[in-house]
Design brief:
Length: 321
């Protein structure tokens, strides 16, 4: 199915250091926008037969204003910014990009674990704010350092990412436990979610956001975790009740948290996990996916999705559930 007019709605979300030559060659004409505000979307997509969006919302009302649209390429894995039901009713194909950056996300997850366990950021500040210079000894021991070897990593979500994180953890000498679906009995070597909470020294989330997993980590589940356990979330922000996590860090029920995602992105300045004085908390601005290698792989997969559709063989198609 030939495509002639493409619109990229938020090109700068991919960075400005990638090779886009093959992607741009898939369609004769592109309108390439660094970013798109909601009030601009309708006019920009009006004549498009293909749209690329990373996070710009395409709801039912907007799709109705794009009469020639044939293909929506989401430059991400999550497709919650597209009304899939409305697209299906209109015969619009929606494709996404999967497994483009497992090494990048696993590396970031391990970085968060290591920095929390070693209190690296606290010690770095102590080395530069004068505390080390004032020490009567050769070292500082102001913050407890934990060896991950021999500890238990609990993984919720054991797809490509979860498995990669598990392999890295085993290389550090950690025991890896995998959770069954929350609320479901244990199967195939997986343990019940509540049992995982009770045993894990580090809990790492790699599951999708669904109605069943929203606020999976809340006051009740936090209370079931080992006191002082570490929490890692490189999946989706709404998996956490963020106020409950902030309170658990302040009380010491959680020994630390490393978060690459928040429920609102970008977050408001008064976000509960961006307030001063929360101990052993690392927040990174949704960058686990963002190695140059992963982003280039994403572009390459996008290119392949468009070419496959043009050949009449759509791939990575997403349908409403």
């Amino acid at each position: 199915m030939p495509l002639t007019h493409g619109v990229m709605l938020d090109g700068d979300s991919l960075g400005n250091d990638l090779n886009l030559k093959d992607l741009r060659a898939t369609v004769p004409h592109w309108d390439w926008h660094p970013n798109t505000q909601p009030a601009q979307t309708a006019e920009r997509i009006r004549q498009a037969d293909i749209i690329i969006t990373n996070k710009v919302v395409l709801d039912r009302a907007l799709l109705a204003q794009a009469p020639t649209l044939k293909l929506i390429c989401v430059a991400a894995t999550g497709t919650n910014n597209v009304d899939l039901a409305a697209a299906a009713e209109r015969g619009i194909c929606v494709s996404n990009v999967v497994n483009y950056g497992p090494a990048s996300v696993a590396q970031h997850t391990l970085m968060l674990m290591l920095n929390l366990a070693t209190r690296a950021f606290d010690y770095q500040r102590a080395a530069t704010d004068g505390r080390w210079s004032r020490s009567p000894f050769f070292c500082l021991l102001d913050y407890p350092i934990v060896e991950l070897a021999g500890k238990t990593l609990g993984i919720v979500g054991y797809g490509t990412l979860g498995k990669k994180v598990g392999a890295l953890a085993q290389a550090l000498g950690m025991q890896v436990l995998v959770s069954a679906r929350p609320g479901q009995p244990p199967t195939d070597g997986r343990v019940a979610f509540d049992e995982l909470l009770a045993q894990a020294d580090v809990l790492s989330l790699h599951c999708p956001l669904t109605p069943d997993t929203q606020h999976l980590i809340n006051r009740d589940t936090l209370a079931k975790m080992k006191p002082g356990a570490l929490l890692i979330n490189c999946a989706r922000g709404p998996l956490l009740d963020e106020t409950a996590v902030a309170d658990a860090l302040r009380s010491g029920q959680l020994g630390g948290a490393g978060l690459d995602v928040l429920s609102q992105e970008p977050p408001s300045p008064d976000h509960p996990l961006l307030q001063p004085g929360i101990p052993n908390l690392i927040v990174t601005p949704h960058t686990a996916w963002a190695s140059r290698e992963a982003r280039q792989n994403l572009v390459n997969i996008l290119t392949g999705n468009i070419l496959a559709f043009s050949r009449g063989q759509p791939r990575n198609r997403v349908t409403p559930t």
